[in-house]
Amino acid sequence: MDFRTKIDIPKYAFGISHKDRCLFIGSCFAENIGNNLIETKIHTSVNPTGILYNPISIRESILNALTAKKYTADDVFLSGGTWNCFDFHSRFSNVDKTICIESINSASQMLKYEIETADIMFVTFGTAFIYELAENGRIVCNCHKQPEKRFNRRLLKGSEIVESWSECIEKIEAANPKLRIVFTISPIRHWRDGAHQNQISKSTLHLAIGELNAKFGNTFYFPAYEIMMDELRDYRFYAADMVHPSDVAVQYIWERFGETFFSEHTKSAIARIGKITAAANHRPLNPQSDEYKKFCSRMLDEIEKLKAEFGEIDFGEEKKSFLVP
User: Fold this and answer.
1) Cα 96 versus chain centre, distance
2) Beta carbons within 10 angstroms of residue 322's beta carbon
3) Computed over its alpha carbons, how large is the radius of gyration of the chain?
4) Does domain 21-262 bear CATH number 3.40.50.1110?
5) What is the pLDDT along the chain (325 residues), one digit of tens a residue?
6) Distance from C-alpha of 40 to C-alpha of 271, rounded to nearest angstrom
7) Please, where are the H alpha helices in 40-96?
8) Are 50 and 89 in contact (CB under 8 A)?
9) What's this model's pTM, rounded to 2 decimal places?
């Protein structure tokens, strides 16, 4: 007997290999999976413009990048001794105004490049709630610890998400016709919204993505949310805050991700790459011994074999570890 419900993940007509370029954008859950992909040596960019939670802020970040919007001093503000921008995560805030502006422009340019060159873009929506500046109705991606009275909080309508993202997808298609877009919904509950409001928010995201996937042929859905809610329906799969997935849960969703997108050929490459990176992180007792030098030589040979078989994989850091003086 099977004492759990297992999510059936649809078969996609495409996969991910070391010849592909991937882009992850959206909530912090996108970073969990994206960073795992980076470790496989598949070219992956994760949130070039920082963590974004709601669909409109993610869309604005993409469109601003594609239209090469140039951020200026008018787009940043000083608070608590740092310069901030309402379009960007706090990781771009800086005590130096010039550095803040330069960093957000550089990040936007990087996002543009990644969109134009990627093969697959994963977009993770976290919440359908948004915060608008009370003074002008502008939707912000991050409140930067500003007083609550400065904002109006509201729930997006599904139609708003579908309409705004339909335009966004068309712009993306024009910039990169080969790009496939895979939507996911973060399984992290926004508990501050309350249990009922969180469910309404996640349901709104589900409905909007369903409509977008029915409308466009290059968009898809990966059920990370369903895997967490149904397959891992137990608090032992949550972190201490009982809201975020535990490391075990993230690893399990990552394994389901691999089952879905990796061929046996790619899985074999990832396993071999893992052995090389583990060996590179190992510190020998005697780095000058003949035995260790032979081991390093074998690792360098394996790196060249992998590059010949799977393409130009970046082993720059690992090769430094194996070059014994």
Assistant:
1) 28
2) 21
3) 22
4) yes
5) 677 788 999 889 999 999 999 999 999 888 999 999 999 999 999 999 999 999 999 999 999 999 999 999 999 999 999 999 999 999 999 999 999 999 999 999 999 999 999 999 999 999 999 999 999 999 999 999 999 999 999 999 999 999 999 999 999 999 999 999 999 999 999 888 889 999 999 999 999 999 999 999 999 999 999 999 999 999 999 999 999 999 999 999 999 999 999 999 999 999 999 999 999 998 888 888 999 999 999 999 999 999 998 888 999 999 999 987 6
6) 8
7) 55-66
8) yes
9) 0.94
Measured in whole angstroms, how far is the alpha carbon of residue 32 from the centre of its chain?
7
Residues 62-97 as b/e (b if ≥16 CB within 10 A, e otherwise) read bebbbeebebeeebbeeeeebbbbbbbbeebbbeee
Report H helices in the chain: 28-39, 55-66, 97-117, 158-175, 195-215, 224-226, 247-261, 264-281, 290-310, 316-322
Calpha distance 218→266 (Å, rounded): 23
Residues of the chain with CATH 3.40.50.1110: 21-262
| CA–CA distance, 281 with 39 (Å, rounded to integer) | 13
- Smallest CA-to-CA distance from 201 within 48, 27, 5 is with 27
